[in-house]
Amino acid sequence: MEVTKIAGPLLIGTMISCGLYGILCVQAYIYHTTFPHDPYTYRIMVYIMLVLETAQTLMLVVDSVDALATHHGNVVSLDSVRMYWFSGPILCGIVTGLGQLFFAYRLQILIGSWVPALVIALLVMCSMGAAMTSGALLFSAGTLMGPLFEKSSMTFTIWHWTNIVCDTLIVVCMVFYLTHHQTVFNSGLYHYINHLIRLVIETGMATAFANALCFVLYTQIKHTTCFIVPYMMTPKLYSNTMLLILNNRIGRESSMEDIDRVGTTITDKAIVKEIASIQNGGHLVRGVKHMTQC
Fold first, then answer.
1. Cα gap 115→77, rounded to integer Å
2. Which of 16, 120, 171, 284 is 20 to 30 A from 74 (CA-CA)?
3. What's the CA gap between 30 and 8, in Å, rounded?
């Protein structure tokens, strides 16, 4: 085995993961200071994601220092699984699942139906189970590239394909619903919906692409750890995506007068109420403030 085929992806993956973690910390600080009155479910999920991402980043850095510095040049030690079995499949599966459930909840509020949310939740349960199993099999293998890791190929496939399907389903449902209703909005809300559509497509497809890339590298490029690069960055993409969606509300309260007097800015539920008001012959001039007080 060539040292560069193992050490190179480990180094690159750790560097990218640390960079995305820095972005996550900035986004978490912005969210904490800007939306202190958001629903407890949102705030708790943000803080849980931050704690999990902090733990994963610390483990990745410690393992990378041990592999690339402490045991520099030792191929056997370099191939050791260390804590990658936990910081990789298990934590990645948990963070990914939380992010997808967050989107499922928002989708249920927007559409008003539990069917898409339940389908997404079932896919999340399947994905998390496969992720936990992959972590256990990687731990039992003891190496990153050893033959025992081949036992996890089926669970690895299930894990990533369910994530890809789940991400794609979220994007398709959001885009279909919002494009179907956007013609009834005034110009300000119309631009907001267009921006939200673009945001969901870009961030949702980014996570789906990362999962697909990880799976392709794992199955097609043997005897290397290239798959670890997207493997390490995937949970950071999910957590950054969630915070990007939440922080994307900044600035709209002044242009759209959508401040809820309790302190919470416009939500998906307010958009649904506005659509219902228009369909029942209401007028947008009454504003979101009137709807939130209903």
1. 48
2. 16
3. 34
